[in-house]
Amino acid sequence: MVGEDFRRLTPAQLDEVLPRLQVLARSSPDDKNILVQRLNGGIMPSSEEEWLEIHPGKDFATQKDLLLPGYKEEWARSRGGVGEVVGVTGDGTNDGPALKAADVGLSMGISGTDVAKNASDIIIMDDKFSSIVKAVLWGRSVFDNIRKFLQFQLTVNVVALTITFLSAVAGYKPPLNAVMMLWVNLIMDTMGALALGTEPPTMSLLERRPYKRDSSLISRPMWRNILVQATYQLALLIFLLQKGPALFGCVDGSSHHFTIIFNAFVFCQVFNEFNAREIGDVFNPFQRLNKSPMFLMVIFFTIVAQWAIVEYGGDFTQTAPLNFYEWKITATLGAMSIPFGFLMRQIPIDEDPKSFAGIGGGDKLSSKKSTSLSGLLAILVPILSAGAYQMYQMSKDL
C-alpha cells in the first residue's frame, strides 16, 4: 500500500487491512506514527479535546469514526481493549513520535539523530540490523527462562503445600519441618532462578510466532508438566510415608524416616530442574549443558549442600545420617522424574493458538487441546484423592 491510499482509510478500514499489510511505500513520518498508534493504542486520543488537537477544525461528533488514528473508545471496542506489541526502528528526527509511541523503539547509534535516540528504548550501537535480531532473540530467551523457572517453582509449591496440608488434615506429623522447608525454598527460589534464569538462547526461538500482549504466562503444556510431575512426587512421598519404615528398617515417624522422605523430595527437585529446561514437547534435558555452566554449578552446589545438611544437620535440621543404600535409593527415586518428563510430553497438549499474534481460526484446535487438558485433570484428580485417602487411613492406624 502507498501512503496516499493509507491516509484515505477510515479506522475500521485500516483494521481490516492491518493483518495483511507488509509494506507501506511513499509514506510520511505521520503515517508511521498513525500506524503504530492504531496497532498498540498507546497514545490514542481518549477525549474530544485530545482528538481536536490532532484534527484542528474538524467536527468530533461527525468525523470521529472517519479520520485516523481514531479514538480510544472506538479502538478498544474494535480490538477488545488489547493492542499489538509494536517495535519500530528509526534514525531521523521525524521518526521521534513513532519511536515514542511504540512499545519498543530502536534507533541507530551511529547514523541516528539525538532526537531519535532520546525517543527510543534501545540504541543499536553498530547500526546493524542483525543486532536487532539478537535483541529479539535474547528478549524471547528471557521470557522463556522466566516460564521455565515458574514451571519448576510451581511444581515444588504444589507438592510441598499439598503434602503439608494433607498431613495436617489427616492428623499426621508433617514430614518436612520448618528448616527443611526453608532449604527447599532456597532450592526453589534462589538456586532455581540462577539455574534456569541464565539459560542461553537458541535460534529456534526465532521460529516461534510472537505472543499476544494478553497471552497467559503459564501455557497449557506447562500446566501438563506441573501436574504430572507434582502427581508423581506426591505419590512418591505418600508411598514413603506409608511403606518407608518397612523398606528401610526405620521407626515410623522418626527423624530417620522423615530424612529419607526429605532426601527423596530434594532429589526430585534436582532432577526436575533438568525437565524444566524445556517448557514444550521437546525432551532433551541434557542438551547444551556445556553452554550452561551456572546450571551445572547450581546442581553441584545443591547436591553437596544436601549431603551436608543430611549428614551433619543433626538436631538443628532434625535429620539423621543415611547409609549408602538409602542415598542410592532416594537418589534413584528422584531420578525417576526424568523418565516421567519423557512420558508427560507424550500427552498431546499444545499451546492455545489464540496466544499467538496473527493467528485466527484456531477455535477448533483450541477446543481439542482444552479437552486433552481436561482429560489429564480427570486422570490426576482421582490419584490425588486416593493419596489423601491413604493418608487418612494411615492416621487412623496410628
Structural description of this entry:
This protein has helices spanning 3-7, 11-17, 29-40, 48-54, 60-63, 72-79, 96-101, 114-119, 129-169, 178-197, 220-248, 255-275, 293-312, 314-317, 324-335, 337-344, 363-397, and strands spanning 87-90, 104-108, 122-124. The model is unreliable at 359-371 (pLDDT under 50). It has 17 helices and three strands. α8 links the parallel β2 and β3. A three-stranded parallel beta sheet has the order 1-2-3. 62% of the residues lie in helices and 3% in strands. α12 packs parallel to α15. The longest helix has 41 residues, at 129-169. It is mostly helical and 398 residues long.
Q: Sketch the major β-sheet.
A: 3 strands, parallel
Give the helix tally.
17
* Widest beta sheet: strand line-up: 1-2-3
Low-confidence stretches: 359-371
Termini distance?
78 Å
Give the mean pLDDT: 86
Shape: elongated
Structural class: mainly alpha
Q: Number of DSSP strands?
A: 3
Helix fraction by DSSP (H/I, runs of at least 4): 55-70%
